[in-house]
């Protein structure tokens, strides 16, 4: 950032313009509103010298105080990551508009004392009433308007810098007094209503006193002059009111417009939105809350995407929206188990990194086949896959979906092994068992960790059927219970009834051709 565009340079430019306006306002006030306070005294060499000395003293004192005040800010700006004044700098950045306004008003109040009391004493024409009127005109009329202009202007300048010094938008963490929107508007309202009335009262009182000793013609001239003064005050008051009201309105509308536009983008699905927090009031708190809300939405979306890596998008949405029976429910489903053959010798013979990479590649192929037909992979257990069709999303054709998925798993493994043969790698074999029945579905686990799981004899039988592939020399076995639910059993060959562990009755199975 160049020096010409730095906040300090912009504030100095603002101070020069606003104080020049204040000086013009002071001249007009004592020339047109209350000329009696100065008695029309001519400006001599001594008063010019006093003005130069007084102005230099006020300017030097103001500069010294400002430099000391802003020293932590300048130190932090030069080395923000290493400055020990970060907390102080943050607070002073937020308090800068109020500090500049108070310093400005103090300078004008001091000017009122210098030109209302000190110079009349030096010049030997001190009058208490005139001094009070001069201090009123300099400090309360001009000083108040200049201080208000400096506050609103400095605030607007520093607001552009807040994102630089508060990248996280945590203005509320600085713990400084907040100037609330209601207070800000009330102060400006009183300023643009009471001060013009006070000035008008001074103008009317001054001319009323002048009329006490004036002749008829002079009195008429005084009345005409009062009408002109009223017109000037009206025009000037309206102009000043418009400027101050515009600055206050902009200080409120600007951040609200930014939040409104950001909300429209979030409504359209953009979650990379972030509003700069540029005020330390209710609007700033709303902006911080909006940013926190969007961050929460982004976190929810990340969780949603991560969850989608474990289940299909349809299942994910069903669970996240609460439509899935998470507390436990009876459901008729089809269970599929797949298990790699000769896994232990392969693990012992191959490097660990290669085993992990090949397992991940195998699981990716099998998972894709299961997902493609509405299945849910419940878990990967070593070299084994447990999947379900018909839960948590209900599917009347769960048996058909499981058999079609098993056929695709077999085909995918064949194509994958062909690629491994070409690369000179070992082929992998697996066995698949499928069984249908009623299970209990739900989120099962501890208070800290849950998993969507199935409980029931159907799960155990499906696992045992998968193991029968080793005895029968087959790749895919489908239970009779599953075959009864199929729309078509084409491609399935009946096998001898077999006994499985945990069951006294034999199980009818069919081999996939």
CATH superfamily of the largest domain: Nucleotide cyclase, GGDEF domain
Q: Strand fraction band?
A: 5-15%
Give Rg in angstroms: 42 Å
Number of domains: 3
**Percentage of residues assigned to helices:** 55-70%
CATH architecture of the largest domain: 2-Layer Sandwich
What's the pLDDT, averaged over the residues?
83
Distance from first to last alpha carbon: 75 Å
- Secondary-structure element series: HHHHHHHHHEHHEEHEEHEHEE
> What fold name goes in the CATH topology slot of the largest domain?
Alpha-Beta Plaits
Q: Which of globular, elongated, flat, extended, rod-shaped describes the shape? A: rod-shaped
* Sheet with most strands: 8 strands, mixed
Number of strands: 8
Number of continuous helical runs = 14
CATH C-level label of the largest domain: Alpha Beta
Helix vs. strand class: alpha+beta
Low-pLDDT residue spans: none
Descriptive overview:
The relative contact order is 0.06. This protein folds into three domains: 1-165, no CATH class; 172-307, no CATH class; 313-512, Nucleotide cyclase, GGDEF domain (Alpha-Beta Plaits, 2-Layer Sandwich). Strands 1, 2, 3, 4, 5, 6, 7 and 8 form an eight-stranded mixed sheet that branches. It contains 14 helices and eight strands. With 513 residues, it is an alpha+beta fold. It has helices at 7-33, 45-78, 86-123, 128-159, 162-165, 181-212, 216-267, 282-307, 313-320, 343-349, 352-372, 398-422, 457-472, 480-485; strands at 329-340, 376-381, 384-389, 430-445, 450-455, 476-479, 492-494, 509-512.
């Amino acid at each position: 950032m160049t020096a010409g565009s730095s906040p300090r340079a912009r504030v100095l430019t603002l101070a020069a313009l606003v104080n020049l306006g204040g000086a013009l306002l002071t001249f007009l006030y004592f020339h047109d509103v209350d000329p009696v306070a100065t008695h029309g005294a001519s400006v001599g060499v001594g008063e010019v010298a006093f003005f130069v000395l007084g102005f230099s003293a006020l300017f030097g004192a103001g500069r010294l105080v400002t430099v000391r005040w802003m020293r932590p800010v300048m130190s932090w700006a030069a080395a923000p990551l290493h400055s020990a004044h970060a907390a102080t700098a943050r607070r002073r950045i937020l308090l800068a508009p109020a500090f500049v306004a108070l310093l400005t008003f103090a300078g004008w109040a001091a000017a009122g004392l210098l030109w209302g009391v000190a110079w009349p004493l030096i010049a030997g024409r001190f009058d208490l009433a005139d001094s009070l009127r001069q201090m009123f005109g300099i400090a309360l009329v001009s000083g108040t308007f200049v201080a208000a202009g400096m506050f609103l202007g400095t605030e607007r300048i520093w607001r552009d810098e807040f994102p630089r010094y508060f990248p996280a938008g945590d203005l509320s963490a600085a713990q400084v007094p907040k100037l609330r929107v209601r207070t800000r508007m009330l102060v400006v309202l009183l300023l643009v209503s009471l001060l013009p009335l006070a000035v008008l009262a001074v103008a009317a009182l001054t001319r009323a006193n002048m009329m006490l000793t004036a002749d008829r013609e002079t009195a008429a001239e005084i009345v005409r002059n009062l009408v002109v003064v009223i017109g000037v005050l009206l025009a000037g008051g309206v102009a000043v009111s418009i400027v101050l009201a515009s600055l206050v309105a902009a200080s409120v509308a600007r951040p609200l417009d930014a939040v409104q536009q950001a909300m429209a983008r979030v409504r359209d699905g953009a979650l990379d939105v972030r509003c700069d927090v540029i005020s330390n009031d209710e609007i700033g708190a709303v902006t911080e809350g909006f940013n926190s809300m969007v961050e929460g939405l982004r976190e929810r979306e990340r969780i949603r995407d991560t969850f989608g890596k474990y289940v299909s998008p349809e299942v994910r949405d069903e669970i996240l929206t609460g439509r899935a029976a998470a507390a436990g429910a009876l459901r008729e489903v089809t269970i599929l188990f797949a298990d790699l053959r000769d896994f232990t010798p392969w693990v012992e013979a191959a490097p660990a990194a290669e085993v992990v990479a090949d397992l991940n590649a195998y699981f990716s192929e099998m998972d894709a086949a299961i997902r493609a037909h509405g299945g849910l992979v419940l878990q990967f257990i070593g070299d084994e896959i447990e999947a379900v069709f018909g839960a948590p999303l209900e599917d009347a054709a769960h048996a058909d979906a499981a058999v079609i998925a098993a056929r695709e798993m077999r085909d995918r493994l064949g194509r994958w092994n062909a690629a491994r043969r070409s690369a000179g790698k070992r082929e992998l074999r697996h066995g698949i068992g499928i069984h249908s029945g009623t299970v209990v579905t739900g989120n099962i686990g501890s208070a800290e960790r849950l998993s969507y799981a199935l409980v029931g004899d159907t799960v155990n039988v499906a696992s045992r059927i998968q193991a029968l592939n080793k005895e029968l020399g087959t790749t895919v076995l489908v239970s009779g219970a599953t075959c009864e639910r199929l729309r078509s059993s084409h491609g399935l060959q009946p096998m001898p009834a077999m006994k499985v562990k945990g069951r006294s009755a034999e199980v009818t199975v069919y081999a996939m051709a």
